[in-house]
Amino acid sequence: MRHPGISSSLAGEQAGRGFLPVDPPGRKPIGMTVCSGIGAAEVSAPWIDWRYQSEIEEFPSAVLAHRFPNAVNLGDMTNFKEWPDANVDVLCGGTPCQSFSIAGLRKGLDRRGGLCGLRW
User: Fold this and answer.
1) Which of 28, 78, 102, 115 has the fewest Cβ atoms nearer than 10 Å?
2) Which residues are catalytic?
3) DSSP secondary structure string, 24-92?
4) What's the chain's Rg over C-alpha atoms?
5) How would residue 19 be classed by pLDDT, with cut points 50, 70 and 90?
6) 91 DSSP β-pair partners
């Protein structure tokens, strides 16, 4: 099966090298996002069963709850040791950009959120 947005020749060429997902036998891979935002990863990879998210901001959390009502928002990723154990095949994260982008205060590493990426 060809994945949405990927040409069949590209999918075949890249999948053989392990870059693109190959149809899993019998089930979708289980996914989790951290610093989930409004769910860009989830929307861009519909062949993954996105079950877990980690978002603390009110507006993105509301968007996630609307778009993915069956997913569990585990909250603050810095509290990961308190999360329940879960089998996850795919972990995707985009650490907060507000410290660097024009959408935020652009304080860089001087802001606590700018240091969040160093946890990875």
Assistant:
1) 102
2) 97
3) -SSSPPEEEEES-TTTHHHHH-TTSEEEEEE--SHHHHHHHHHH-TTSEE---GGGGGGSPP---SEEE
4) 16
5) low
6) 32
pLDDT tens digit sequence for 28-53: 899 999 988 889 999 999 999 999 99
Helix/strand/coil for 13: helix
In the block, tokens 């392990």 appear at 18
Residue 51 to residue 32: CA distance in whole angstroms: 6
pTM: 0.64
- Give 52's strand partners: 32, 72
Q: d(Cα 38, Cα 20) in Å, to the nearest integer?
A: 23
- Residue 7: pLDDT band with limits 50, 70, 90: very low
